[in-house]
UniProtKB/TrEMBL annotation:
Protein's UniProt name: SsrA-binding protein
NCBIfam families the record matches: PRK05422.1, smpB
UniProt function note: Required for rescue of stalled ribosomes mediated by trans-translation. Binds to transfer-messenger RNA (tmRNA), required for stable association of tmRNA with ribosomes. tmRNA and SmpB together mimic tRNA shape, replacing the anticodon stem-loop with SmpB. tmRNA is encoded by the ssrA gene; the 2 termini fold to resemble tRNA(Ala) and it encodes a 'tag peptide', a short internal open reading frame. During trans-translation Ala-aminoacylated tmRNA acts like a tRNA, entering the A-site of stalled ribosomes, displacing the stalled mRNA.
GO cellular component, one term: cytosol
Stored InterPro entries: SmpB, SsrA-bd_prot, SsrA-bd_prot_CS
Length: 158
């Protein structure tokens, strides 16, 4: 078994949503499965997925991923018509789904996709239960991060 084959079945990351940590306070994280078509799996194995403009909505008791872009491969079959940004259903347990519905509808939380990765040969999406940050919150977090970095630098040299 080659090194490349081992990584595909393991926990290798396909795509990250780095902007989510900047724009939201992530309070809870959940793992969801995805309903995918064959060409999407092949494209994701080639690393052609993006989560930057994607979001999760809950409609009629089901969770859906909107705006995730999976670019089709040029070698895809000719008898299919791939839609790179189609809506994809998320697979969650009933208890997880009811928890998300309650928090989103009653408490004003948002559900954001954080990471797309492989787990035991299956594509998984890490979603986060989040509250939006205001501009002053973003500045405070950045100031705290800079202070921690400076403190570590001083302690390392001194």
């Amino acid at each position: 078994m080659s090194k490349k084959q081992k990584n595909q079945g393991g926990g290798s990351t396909i795509a990250l949503n780095k902007k989510a940590k900047h724009d939201y306070f992530i309070e809870d994280r959940l793992e969801a499965g995805l309903v995918l078509e064959g060409w999407e799996v092949k494209s994701m194995r080639a690393g052609r997925a993006q989560l930057s403009e994607s979001y999760v909505l809950i409609k009629r008791g089901e969770a859906w991923l909107f705006g995730a872009h999976i670019s089709p491969l040029t070698t895809a079959s000719t008898h299919i018509n791939p839609d790179p940004s189609r809506t994809r259903k998320l697979l969650l347990h009933g208890a997880e789904l009811s928890k998300l519905i309650g928090l989103v509808e009653r408490r004003g939380y948002t559900v954001v996709p954080l990471a797309l990765y492989w787990k035991r040969g299956r594509a998984k999406l890490e979603i986060g239960l989040a509250k939006g940050k205001k501009a002053h919150d973003k500045r405070a977090v950045e100031k705290e991060r800079d202070w921690q970095r400076e403190k570590a630098r001083v302690l390392k040299t001194g």
